[in-house]
Amino acid sequence: MMKTQNQQLKPQDVLLLLKIVSNNTPSWNQKPMAESLGLSQSEVSEAVGRCKYAGLLAPNGKMVMRLSLLEFLQYGLRYVFPIKPGPVVRGVPTSHSAKPLSEEIQSSEAYVWPYGKGTVRGQSILPLYPSVPEAALKDEKLYELLALVDALRVGRARERELAVSTLKKRLNLGE
Which of 13, 29, 79, 131 lies 20 to 30 Å from 35 when distance is taken between CA atoms? Predict the structure, then answer.
């Protein structure tokens, strides 16, 4: 009998989808994926199940449905995983304070994920998942995707617009 209880997306599901996109290989395996994201193998397995159920992963569980992911990130993410900037802390830059948006947006206020080894002071933005700062620092492409996603969660209209058009390019969806 298939489990049908809770198929609602969790923040780590978005993290997994972005990592699959950044790897850009349909032959990924759960164990190395779990290690690179700071998740357990069972968390990755459950995330795959939820993402398939939501139509964000192909039925084979390997390929991201990129258009569906973009629609979810663009229209749903900030309502499902909302965030408000918190106190000034030391951390890792995110949203418009990190690449690629930092190259287009000049801002006096920095947004950071709180992180002890961080080098920048700014308003704290809780990451989608606790392991995000470390996973991002190990993978530049993933880092940039996560920063764009945070711009969708916390940014003003212009930042969100730029983030969406950049995400379209990163997801190979034209523009």
Answer: 79
